[in-house]
Batch of 3 targets.
Target 1
Amino acid sequence: MIRPLAEQDKTLYLSLYTDAKVMRHIGEPLSIAAAEKAFSSTLKAMTKPEPKILTWAIVEKATAAIIGLQALTFSNSDNIAEIGIMLTPAANGRLFPEEAMGALMEYGFTHMQLTCINAVYSHKNLATERFVNKLGFIVNLKSEQNLTNTRHQYIEPHMWQHPVITTILPKDEISHCPTKRFSANLYAQ
């Protein structure tokens, strides 16, 4: 399940952004103080009427444990977003990225009317390369020529072939739903 990021997710957020292993393909790990500031800024940004970033907590259905975060960051065009994901080390290798990102992509295309979702990641991150390829992303050759250490792939609605959403909760059943862009908790198969 994925749901909008909430105050209750602070501990996980801090643990992910300060962990050198989790951050190795993203950037330098943050200090606790910087991670706390980033968390507050993220929550605040999500309350704007037209936020530029929306972040979801990834919850394992079997245990109700929060196992990661994912986000959509919107470009200058509201119909194009970049997707990103971070998982706890214990959640790696268990197919969670495919399910969580698949649900968010499907939601983005069907409920947010996105026309393109980009995935940008380090060329050294082979695990991300495997699962974005599995989800149907294709390499953007024009961007690849300009970003030597970064992979840039994209997917458009007509390319999406992996429906995973089984349930969308109504907005009034969500405990934390700060903006009109958020309208559901998503349950994947």
Target 2
Amino acid sequence: MQKTDVLKSIEYYCTKETNNICPFTHEKCKKVGRADLGVCSLYHNGNHQIICPNLFSKINFAKLVAKRIIGTDNVDFLKEFKAGNNFIDYIVVDKDNPSNYFGLEIQALDTSGNYRWLFGNKVKPFCINWKTTKKTIVSQLISKAQIFKKAKKHLVLLIQDTFLNYLEADKYRFSPNKLIHICSLKYDGNKFVYYSFHSLNVTELNSLLIESEFDLNKAVVEKFTK
């Protein structure tokens, strides 16, 4: 499906001409409406900033880290897995051993303003809302990491390198930790060109990880073997 650029600022695939079908999920785009198109990324401050998590599906993101985390890339996926009061984006499961798995969360960037100014409309221009993005993912990590702590499993956060740079500048520290890991990808507007891998150790976050009562190990095995 051909990408279309508007003033070199917007990357999108879903339009009325394509019936707003996302080429990555093969479902109706949930972001259509702001400018009658589904926006995947924005060129902002010298970078192509990913604002739709489905864009990460340009690569096999789960297999990218599976071998590193659980020792195999022969995996299957449980999407939007319900774990207590939380939904995990993906549980990545070893096909040969369903008790060998990890969680994968994907965080794109939030925006404020409106894209329609690119088409001549008198509206507030768009910008990246870094603070809201940070608040969203930190609160989710606190809630979801409690579940993985009890299960003694890994939780991987997949983000763009520009967001990782923002977190580091905001004094989040990265050092060895066996629970939460961050995989960051660089995106040039056409493809992902490399990734880096970090382990997250935020003192304030660790102190909040009260062990959850939810049995994730049992739930994953039961779901995968049905």
Target 3
Amino acid sequence: MALVKQAIAKIITCQVTDKKQQSFTHSQSLWGLTASCEGFIGQLGGWVQGECEQVSEEHNSDSHNQAVVIGLWQSQQDLTDFMESTHDDIIEQNLQPSTFIACQVNRHQHVLSMSLKALNIPEIQLISLVTCEGVIDKQKFVDEQKQFGIPALQKQLGFVGGDVWQQEKDSNKYLVLTYWSSEQAYEVYNLETLPNLTQLLNQENITQVSPQNVSGMKVSPRKITSKTVLVERRWDVIAG
């Protein structure tokens, strides 16, 4: 994949029952028409590992799985044009809405690249999604990533690349996406590097935002959640 500036990430999270998992996978593999759309960069996704939160209260008695799909676009207008044209044509053909019981969609603006090279989707086997809520001092958050997070990641064997994104609906919510060449590589980072990095950040009093009075408003500590996704190769769509 060519080195292209990313502007928009569309993150789709679907709740899928066990009975529909195979049907969802088949439908998700039928998004190939997206490849030729103006401004499209690439699409990938897979299944969340471990326990996952309910996207909907409905069908909560059914065993379910959570699918995450990431679509990357060069501009907001490119994505809007796609949604108003080709998107509906694909949905009519693959009947994907019938394969899930709930779906959430969020758009994110690109903030910072962590990659040393152009993103190569077929190289990615695992995706880590870390959500940081309640980020009040945005510049400080970005500086943390530049000073501590990115250098640590770029030294890590198996790190393919990553980006920092800001959610459009909530400007205080950031998403740190990192891509890995294997589950094993991510596990080594998670067990060996991440604890030391977290300790360093805590010592520097960076990751914790103490409640304080800023311009008369009380600031709450950040909330950080994470999940990992095993990539489903059949869902890859490469711009062509």
